[in-house]
């Protein structure tokens, strides 16, 4: 069985008190409790404070381009679908630069987990507004306040019939761990949006601000009810629901690709001569 120490990577270089620390620790605990060995995991990221996470966990990792986390994660899953693939991204990286990839990952439904560190700012580049920043918020480059309404990633995901939609809070690690475990074991594309305070650049959405508002969806809540999921996804302000909003069964992308049904692509024989012949067909 793996241990927490098996997943220990480099010492994180985040601001003291950053919610990313809790997310990193919770990912490790979730993997350990699921009995998943580091050699069975691939963590993929883009750019940003969340994008640094692969450096701080010991397993297979890939730190790619800004906004391109999901194409890499999907490709890796297609190449070796025996791996547990976890994509980590910030709200700017995923919902901004990577917004198009976010939509098409939902549509394809690859068997990967997406953990979004949603701190409502671009933390790496000194606190500019992200797609989830509230309208009217003053930032370093929005001295008159943010002019646009924030996007609602959960509502968007539910509208596209994402097979798993959930929200957690970095300040509630025990519940967040259970949500992560549910996302990792779910067959299909699993979105887990994590409310993660930025203690340096976001002085509004603090740990206390969230604790005063967050509540868990109860045992009587039915995540198969898409209409109710929409209602809960639109709820924000004095009360903020956390938990699994929506879950459904859909065909998994890898199961529809004929070339990888017998064995993962990485375990298939590769002929350089055959590859050359295929390439020459295009000339």
TrEMBL record:
SUPFAM superfamilies: Thiamin diphosphate-binding fold (THDP-binding). GO terms for biological process: cellular respiration; organic acid metabolic process; sulfur compound biosynthetic process. Keywords: Iron, Iron-sulfur, Magnesium, Metal-binding, Oxidoreductase, Thiamine pyrophosphate. Residues 198-261 form the Pyruvate ferredoxin oxidoreductase beta subunit C-terminal domain. InterPro entries: 2-oxoacid:Fd_oxidoreductase, OFOB, PFO_beta_C, THDP-binding, TPP_enzyme_TPP-bd. The keyword Transit peptide does not apply. Residues 52-194 form the Thiamine pyrophosphate enzyme TPP-binding domain. The keyword Cytoplasm does not apply. Its EC number is 1.2.7.3. Pfam families: PFO_beta_C, TPP_enzyme_C. One of its GO terms (molecular function) is thiamine pyrophosphate binding. Its cofactor is thiamine diphosphate; [4Fe-4S] cluster; Mg(2+). Gene3D superfamilies: 3.40.50.970. Signal peptide: none annotated. NCBIfam families: PorB_KorB. This is 2-oxoglutarate oxidoreductase, beta subunit. It comes from Methanosarcina thermophila CHTI-55.
